[in-house]
Design goal:
Elements (H helix, E strand, L loop, with lengths): L1 E2 L9 H9 L10 H22 L6 H19 L11 E2 L6 H10 L4 E5 L10 H13 L29 E5 L7 H16 L11 E7 L4 H14 L6 E6 L12 H10 L4 E6 L7 H19 L3 E4 L13 H8 L1
Parallel strand pairs: 1-2, 3-4, 5-6, 5-7, 7-8
Helix pairs in contact: 1-2, 6-7, 8-9
Length: 331
């Protein structure tokens, strides 16, 4: 189960950022190691403050662990012939790292592996980076694939390299939301839940749905995901696709969510449901950016009455459907 991970405590923030800015699939600049160290130190206190406001750390790994346990229970039930099954977490920027997960897989003698990207839509910067880390691990043993360095020391329990297992069969799930109708149904159900909590006097049919996406995934796949969700809702509500989490001075996808909310407020819109469409778990970009910066602070600033945010899939029972993983194991 591949993801970027998130710092579980504020003391982990610097090393998380150091690895992130050393990732040449995400960012390529001259003197990258020097730049990564400088920008990580500069941004660490800013991000630490955000984590303090959501409980002191990211819940991403906790949610991923819940999802992994649920996936294994479902796989054991629907595909016992490919068992026993086991999940491994491979995080790009925090422990357990992708390369550590591969070491554990090899030490356990696993015969078949499904590299399951937790990014619903494909991006060279996210899914691609994780897949490149797997390739780097085999092509350059000991490499993290991050500008030639491993920014986080391995845990004390790590005993070093294990023998390569060239006979292990790998499958890769690099994007999947429109191939997994359960994902769209979970998102639609979470939207219905938020609509049900609007004041009874609100005309729900005029409530705007804002699908909020990170700018890294492929735009056409993000749009297709939003369309699949609206199909589940019979296109009964007005909706827009907006973009979040801009950093730096480079070009970003638009319209950004802040300007969208301000524009809707100027048009007299008072009720909005924000829907994160490119994430599978809660983390700082949902719990702080969407919940605090937009649903609370910006909504109050522009005079909106109710700006609610639909939950990420997390451990929703319908989301833990693994027929497509079972298919990957069976061929």
């Amino acid at each position: 189960m591949l993801n970027i991970g998130g710092p579980e405590t504020t003391k982990d923030v610097f090393y998380f950022l150091l690895r992130l800015f050393n990732d040449r699939d995400l960012l390529r600049v001259p003197f990258q190691r020097t730049f990564a160290s400088w920008i990580a130190r500069r941004r660490t206190p800013i991000l630490q403050e955000k984590y303090d406001e959501i409980g002191g750390g990211s819940p991403l790994i906790q949610w991923a662990t819940c999802q992994g346990k649920g996936l294994i229970r479902a796989l054991d039930n629907i595909s016992p012939e490919t068992g026993p099954h086991k999940y491994y977490l491979g995080m790009r920027y925090v422990h357990p790292l992708t390369e550590e997960a591969i070491n554990d897989i090899e030490a356990d003698g696993v015969e078949r592996v499904v590299a399951f990207s937790q990014f619903p839509q494909y991006s060279c910067n996210t899914s691609g980076s994780s897949f490149n880390a797997i390739a780097a691990h085999y092509n350059e043993p000991g490499s993290s694939g991050l500008a030639g360095i491993d920014s986080i020391p391995p845990p004390k329990s790590q005993t070093g390299k294990v023998p390569r297992r060239p006979g292990t069969i790998w499958s890769f799930l690099d994007r999947w939301p429109t191939a997994m109708p359960e994902f769209a149904e979970v998102v639609a159900e979470n939207i219905r839940h938020e609509l049900s909590h609007l004041p009874p006097t609100v005309n729900k049919e005029n409530t705007i749905i804002l699908f909020s996406a990170h700018s890294l995934p492929m735009q056409i796949e993000v749009s297709a995901t939003a369309h699949a969700v609206m199909e589940k809702l019979n296109f009964a509500l007005p909706y827009r696709l907006v973009w979040q989490s801009k950093i730096g001075l480079g070009r970003w996808m638009g319209q950004d969510i802040a300007s969208a909310l301000r524009g809707l407020a100027r048009l007299g819109q008072k009720h909005v449901v924000i829907v994160p469409i490119t994430f599978t778990t809660e983390h700082v970009e949902t719990l702080h950016e969407l919940d605090i910066e937009y649903c609370s602070d910006l909504a109050r600033e522009v005079g909106m009455v109710s700006v609610r945010r639909a939950s990420a899939p997390n451990d929703h029972p319908l989301f833990i459907q693994v027929s497509f993983i079972a298919f990957s194991l069976s061929y």
